[in-house]
Amino acid sequence: MAHVSTRAMDLHTAAPFGISRWTHSEFARFVVELRQGGLVGYGEGAPNARYEESREQDMELLTDWAPEIADLEGPAGVEMYCEGLGGAGVPALRAGLSAAAWDLAGKQAGEPVWRMLGLARPSVRTSYTIAIGAPDEMLAQARAASAFGTLKVKLGFDGDLELARRLKLALPDVTFRYDANEGWDRERAATALAVLEDLDAELVEQPLPASDPEGMVWLKERTRIPLLADEAVLSIDDLDAVGEAYDGVVVKLAKAGGIAAAFALVSACTELGLRVLVGCMIESSLGIAAALQLAGLADYVDLDGALLLAEDPFTGIDVDGDLLTASESPGLGVRPAD
Q: Domain span at residue 37?
């Protein structure tokens, strides 16, 4: 029998983190603990209001599900349970429970999760996000993070293109990718992409609202920059609707619903010829470690969520500048920092 419990975890970014829809410094997260035979598997839930999910709702649901989970056959049964909850929504809750199951399974087997998945040990370079703020503050943040080979800049505000020009002029050797978070309309996006193409943009995430796939088809015909779906693709079920509208997909465990679900989404994207960016929410090293298990399969990696924190409550990932390497320890390879 596997016993599940959850506890709240508040994460604070070192600086305010802004996108086109909001700016926050505190993020409500929770930790899932799955216990069996004296071992504990950990997973992180990173709910997002954009997907109609909250920490309070998720923690209440997990409490309600605990008796059912206790009757399951260990971690494998819990992962199957997560997959069966696909129609229930709450992808971040499923992702936290899935990660805890894989962490526990790895500890029981004495193997890291990446090896259990049949993958090589992930060692990948991540981009670093420059969140929306005052232009001078964004420029200062970019200069401070210039040791990262790639910076992801949040756009979708008045003056965003002038800021992009200033960043490229100040840091000509840095690779820039951009994320509008649905912050443009069609004409604004077309104008922006023309400018960003001249600035050698690596890619642009979600330039238009997810509800405008026809606009994305129109936009894709007007640029050479790879356009990636983020808010438009939560899970594998959304792929059919976006295949002609985007060049790739941002895969996040908190959207896909867990490690197995994200692995399936990555595989499906590859089969369809879509590029893959493995990304994250603002998460501790616990959430990042779960995504890192799959990051070696990606074309692009954006797993800087824990690097943006004032204090990280978990530890275990090998961080060397922009290089993230998964642990060889059993499970996800991370543990509480206390």
A: 3-110
